Amino acid sequence: MQQIKKIAARISLILEWENVGNDYIACLTGGDEHIGAVAVGFYDQESGRASSSVITNPGHRETEIAMLGAKVFSEACKCASVFIVGIHLKNITKDEIEEIVEVSEEMIHELSVIIQEGF
Questions:
Q1: Are 85 and 37 in contact, with CB atoms under 8 Å apart?
Q2: Global pTM value
Q3: Cα-based angle 28, 33, 37 (whole degrees, multiple of 5)
Q4: At what angle do helices 63-77 and 94-116 cross, to 10 degrees?
Q5: Which domains does the chain show, CATH number per domain?
Q6: What is the CA radius of gyration of the chain?
Q7: Helical H runs in 1-119?
Q8: pLDDT digits (tens, 9 = 90+) for 57-81
């Protein structure tokens, strides 16, 4: 499994991914790891467009990160993807939330470049 690691707020974020046949699975975790949201990305070969759908564990706020991850991942690999996100930091502040979201998005876009270059 390949991975990207970055520090955000007071935690390490880890984005890991691997092939599952012709498709991909990725997992972005940090702090107290868990499954907060799971998104599936789809790529339509005909239109050249990607989309995603998400299921979020009640009370969790990783929805947007998971949806973005699945869509960007599927755009990059031009196939189906599953993107799991579980990030938890006790006593988190608004600034820390913003930093974690920003770093998560950077990691997702870095992954996209790696996939497009054929890691």
A1: yes
A2: 0.94
A3: 55
A4: 10
A5: 2-116 (3.30.230.100)
A6: 14
A7: 63-77, 94-116
A8: 999 999 999 999 999 999 999 999 9
pLDDT at site 87: 97
Handedness of CA 118, 62, 68, 94 (dihedral sign): negative
Sequence-distant (6+) residues with CB within 8 A of 81 are 23, 24, 25, 26, 40, 41, 70, 73, 74
89: which DSSP letter?
-
Proportion of the chain in helix, strand, coil states, percent, rounded to 5: 30, 40, 25
Distance CA 62, CA 119 (A): 26
Confidence band, pLDDT 50/70/90 cuts, at residue 24: very high
If DSSP codes are grouped into helix, strand and coil, which group holds residue 13?
strand
